[in-house]
Automatic annotation (TrEMBL):
Residues 1-23 form the signal peptide. It comes from the Bacteria. GO terms for molecular function: efflux transmembrane transporter activity; porin activity. It comes from Roseivirga misakiensis. SUPFAM superfamilies: Outer membrane efflux proteins (OEP) (SSF56954). This is Transporter. GO terms for cellular component: cell outer membrane; efflux pump complex. Its main location: membrane.
């Protein structure tokens, strides 16, 4: 009895765990976006780039701080170099052609030195530091642009799955209806009130619907995989959606469209930062005409002995040295390299200005096109929704006439096909309208 209770409890625990796992994989659109902002690989790389730009600022700033080096050295002169001298230098009685050799130095030597340098003035440093900070600001905008791209991709993929799920529901309803009609037709055929071809036509239609159902199921699986990739979720994990198409809001404000400034788009800001960096690049080249001033200082001590054992003896005398210096580097002539480098940078800046004008014009056109596309697709959606309702009504009337024996089987099949096509047209118009609204929100900066 106890073993049975334990087994039931264990199975209940497994069911709770499985339910918890499944519950964790049910996402609303907002939850899917929040998950993607934390797990999308492109966004992670953008965050890493932002951190790298932050570190680059400190790396550049370090060049303007004091540079201090310490050095300790030991040398064992295993064989001292002999210097050749006239012997008369040491021995007055030596002949004029007599020579002698002298070894200058000792076998064991040790030294300790500290050197320091401080930049006093370097125009390239200050401009480079400003450029590093400007680059940091740019990569922050790049990260925001990546976030918008991720939100756009997740939103479109999310609604693609929902549209296909609705299509599956409609096909299931059609299958259920055709199965019922097929069963009624079989009974009529068995009683002699219908022909064999009527049953065959309905069976073919049912088989086509089931095949279509399998195809849509595969499309849903592929759509979910696209959504998972956009979210940064492993594709092997199960995923369910909690939102419905009824939650989608197609409304927008005309005044907001008219008042929006496309220069506030992140794409325009990215080029503006590139232009700022190009201007700083030109200033950096020009600053290289200005002299660079550096302060240098050093201090050291050295000692030596022919015996290694007493080299660092407390009685050993150490000899000190120190220096302080100022270094001024004055550029004189570089073959006009900086002149032509500056011209090339100006051409690059001119290209960026042209790209900016083209981009802002394209963004303005994108906003207008998105607004017009939404209006057109909403009109199409309204028409297709009305067509679907009419096709449904025609199908119901045709089915009723067929049931009462005053309509043909072929008319019913044609009506069913028309209704199914109307459903497909409606869902296509619905998804196109959703995509147009998402594009408009992106143009208005609402996906930030």
């Amino acid at each position: 009895m106890k073993r049975s209770i334990r087994r039931v409890n264990f199975l209940a625990l497994l069911m709770l765990i499985a339910f918890g796992v499944n519950a964790q994989n049910v996402f609303s659109l907002r939850e899917a976006i929040e998950y993607s902002l934390a797990n999308n690989q492109d966004l992670k790389n953008a965050m890493v780039t932002t951190k790298d730009a932050e570190a680059q600022v400190f790396e550049t700033r370090a060049d303007g701080l004091p540079q201090i080096d310490a050095n300790f050295g030991y040398t064992n002169n295993t064989q001292l170099q002999q210097s050749i001298l006239r012997a008369s230098v040491f021995d007055p009685t030596a002949g004029p052609n007599d020579i002698t050799t002298v070894a200058f130095g000792i076998q064991h030597q040790s030294n300790f030195n500290i050197t320091a340098s401080q930049m006093i003035w370097d125009g390239s440093f200050f401009i480079g530091l400003k450029a590093a900070r400007k680059l940091r600001e740019k990569v922050v905008v790049d990260q925001k642009k990546t976030e918008v791209d991720v939100v756009e991709a997740v939103t479109k993929a999310y609604y693609l799955v929902l549209v296909n799920q609705v299509r599956t529901d409609l096909i299931d309803t059609n299958i259920e209806t055709i199965e019922k009609t097929l069963e009624e037709t079989r009974q009529l055929y068995e009683n002699g009130f219908a022909e064999k071809i009527d049953v065959t036509r309905l069976q073919v239609q049912l088989n086509n619907l089931k095949t279509e159902r399998q195809g849509v199921s595969q499309v849903i699986a592929s759509s979910k995989n696209i959504l998972k990739l956009s979210m940064g979720m492993p594709v092997i994990q199960p995923l369910s959606l909690s939102d419905t198409l009824d939650d989608f809001d197609f409304s927008y404000s005309n005044s907001e469209v008219q008042a929006y400034n496309v220069q506030e788009r992140l794409e325009a800001q990215q080029i503006n930062y590139l232009k700022d960096l190009a201007i700083l690049d030109i200033k950096n080249i020009r600053s290289q005409y200005i002299p660079k001033v550096t302060l240098n200082a050093g201090w050291g001590r050295n000692t030596g002995n022919d015996s290694f054992g007493t080299l660092w003896n407390s009685d050993r005398m150490w000899f000190g040295s120190s220096f302080v210096g100022l270094n001024v580097n004055i550029p004189v002539f570089d073959g006009l390299r900086k002149k032509y480098t500056t011209e090339r940078k100006k051409y690059q800046l001119e290209t960026l200005n042209n790209q900016y004008d083209l981009l802002t014009n394209n963004l303005q056109q994108e906003l207008i096109n998105a607004k017009d596309a939404l209006e057109v697709n909403l009109q199409r959606l309204e028409v297709q929704e009305a067509n679907m309702a009419l096709a449904k009504e025609v199908t119901e009337i045709t089915r009723e006439k067929y049931t009462e024996g005053i309509g043909s089987n072929l008319e019913l099949i044609n009506a069913e096909d028309g209704y199914k096509q109307a459903e497909v047209n409606y869902l296509t118009a619905l998804y196109d309208a959703i995509i147009a609204k998402i594009d408009l929100d992106k143009s208005l900066g609402k996906l930030n």
